[in-house]
């Protein structure tokens, strides 16, 4: 059935999912799709279309947006210079003429196709679509691809073609992750895919979605997803995360406060606050990162408390946050409290106050406590009042709206009736009218509405019962945690569990405790006590006569009242009703007198009953909840129990059928009203004393809502005569039984119908559904490359599980000869090795590949996952490294292993930085990271030696720290000179900027030339970006390359990656941005400036600066040269940076240049800031005579010196030198 499913069904699923805002509803929709249309358990044809980016059975299409645009133009047979063709080719560009679809290729293509395709679906099935996509992927030339696209256009409409294009581009933008789709398909699908990377295999192995699959280990020949490294901002953070004790460090240190307080109390220096009749001491409480001190209100206590805090600061090194600390007093004057707070350097705490959302010092019945919650509840429903929600949607929203009521507040206080009435009024008005601002007709009693669905209600929560169920847990916890401090306080203050059950008349009771007593003692809540059962342990907590600990739901007092009256141990626990004789319990019950003859049999039965009970010395008594299988108290089971306690309504089979139907919620809600006889018919409205004409009934939606059912019933021929009944007569009371019979027959039999009949029956309802519009987006994870080794063949598989067999010839022989086992999987990196100059060849940001001499492929293995016939992923990293060293024989420059103190580290010379080592403190991590920056390496990875290998895991066992994660030492003020159109959410609008640096002007003048510097777009919020674009939009001019040249005051390269979509037509109209970046700079052929930035991002918009105050290129070059090729002024790369870095400012306009009397070509190059490299140019003299721009001459001389140790001289010739060669001699 899966392959025969129409493409239109799948496209409807995509459209609904993209518009929906609720992640839960999206997941439910996918689950229903799989349940309804994949009944033959053949999931792969559909799942490969749901997750096109994970499908590797079908090859690459070789069609990205630009190529796909030209292919569609040819498939449509339109001219390349026609408006629609230009629209496709320039899909990214925005403007008034392009509309809101700009930047989204699929929407632009759909807009073009809509004028050439029909609106009706072509009937293409999932099987036919997959066959055409297979042909498209296997097409060997462009003509075959165009033929397939033409076929697709002929067999689909524009809406279907839009989703096909997104499948081809492998980006559906549904706003739901692959993790969620896997979870709805099968709970084990993601785990299986992580270790196989085979979507087809996953669908075949998990054909039964109700059966769990045993977790599969990795296999030789199957690609696996990598273990991922979590990003950290600096070395200090990385070291803390890598420490297994890091989460406990704070708790361990703060425990010192408790120790100091304990010492002060033992020496009678601090007086605790004593609670209740048993004088329970309370002095310090700690919750998360909060600490609360309690004590007698005395001056000595205040002084001691200050001493404790000061000692803690000195010993621990931590500082008290006095700005967030408060001091409050009860029973003293306001002046005394103010003086105490000032002495402690705290702010004074006003009473009443709120702590963790709980009001303290005010009555829970006060309207001010609940008013913010009511407002929040109103606001959540009010924003939907103008929406055309069906009744089914309103029911769902009311239940979800209850989350606006903080559960912890309902768990602590008994909600006042006036608050309940207010909330119920809001719910009722919203349910029956869609708004909350006016009263509506309550067609059904609210008590009925709150009944469970299987008893004729709508399942809306009864707030009073829900509140009582939450409060009931206090009694449960009070019994099971009698040794906890809070339970001891309640016992001392109020009497504990017994007082909760039977109440007490003396003493000062708080409103909170009175409310708890009311909950446990009121008639309806006796059902809570009736469902509590004791499981006998040592008998310490259980009262022998008065508690329920037998299996017959009766206390011994109720079952044997005569014996209870004769007992002298009426309130004694079980453990005092006997004693142990060796390991056997012997009952010892004391009676007031001897028994009469007619009482002997009763006593014998009584003793026989209690002799069956086993008393255990070592186990504790446990209170259990009868209505839950686990025996634990659950709010859900108690709520259901309370609802059933005072309710005589039995289960309604018709209601149960209605709520189990697989039909839309609005249809279920209509059916419920139909059975309740609460539709707004003429007769019902007359009973409500509302005069209304029959002609208004259709306007109320009665017939409009009912007609789909009538049409469906007619199409199924359940009652052939139904079409002869008119609208006015349909809703008369005389035909009530007939309509009910029709509805029951139709709904009761619909799942017995064939698939075709079922679709016919509900096609009208589906057409009427309306959903909230939402723009979704999809995120992509960047993966790193590795390689996979299988003897005697070698497969090079990157982490995006594509087989790169083209690399096999370079490395297979080396691996086969030097790996000492037949079967293994190595985790590693493939690098390019330059044997002449540097260990690793680097591109240095150049776009054109440089021809490097002596190039070799190098495989670096840093982990082993499989060995022989055994998976090693469950062993620790340390153990895996030991195995790796044993089975791999390194070959210098070809095959290396990266492990601490071995492998590639054994080749390094003295003084060279190592590749891997075991760090013992954060200073070593910072030093190693600083060396990677100076060597211009990518970054460092920190791994927990005790960690196991988990595919696709980013839990923090591996951490990565790169220079781009660190705030640059200087923020650079640059000028916007151009803009680039965005895509997706920012489609059709400028989303990135081309920024430039100024050419240093003459004194007392403004810059006249600006040099392109970099491209930047991240860092601003949507509002900030919109403000910048709005301000510059009047001055944007489209760049029509190559017809027009860039503005004369901009110096650019016209590189394809530099070329903007729009120019700012005048620098005077532009805006300065303050940008930051990775601390390293790069040389780039893309932009005109000699250096550019890695990963630039906007820090803020400098509206306070004029256009001519941007950074000049000469100042930037000086900054780079003075900091060894970086923009960092601070040398502590790995440490935490200041939140406000230093800013590089442009030179002052009045600054004068220091002119030298020595000609520039005779000045010796300043190499004081250049780090020395190798000795290959030792004792040589270089004279560079090439005619180059000045900063390229400087760079060339720097590179030469970098490889010199004893250089005599590096001379730069005049720029107009007639020589055109370079000579070097010793």
From TrEMBL:
This is DNA ligase 4 isoform C. It comes from Glycine soja (Wild soybean). Residues 861-999 form the ATP-dependent DNA ligase family profile domain. GO terms for molecular function: ATP binding; DNA binding; DNA ligase (ATP) activity. Residues 1126-1152 are annotated as: Disordered. SUPFAM superfamilies: ATP-dependent DNA ligase DNA-binding domain, DNA ligase/mRNA capping enzyme, catalytic domain, Nucleic acid-binding proteins. The keyword Nucleus applies. It comes from the Eukaryota. One of its GO terms (cellular component) is DNA ligase IV complex. PROSITE patterns: DNA_LIGASE_A2, DNA_LIGASE_A3. Residues 1129-1141 have a biased composition (Basic and acidic residues). Belongs to the ATP-dependent DNA ligase family. Keywords: ATP-binding, Ligase, Nucleotide-binding, Nucleus. Pfam families: DNA_ligase_A_C, DNA_ligase_A_M, DNA_ligase_A_N, RVT_1, zf-RVT. One of its GO terms (biological process) is double-strand break repair via nonhomologous end joining.
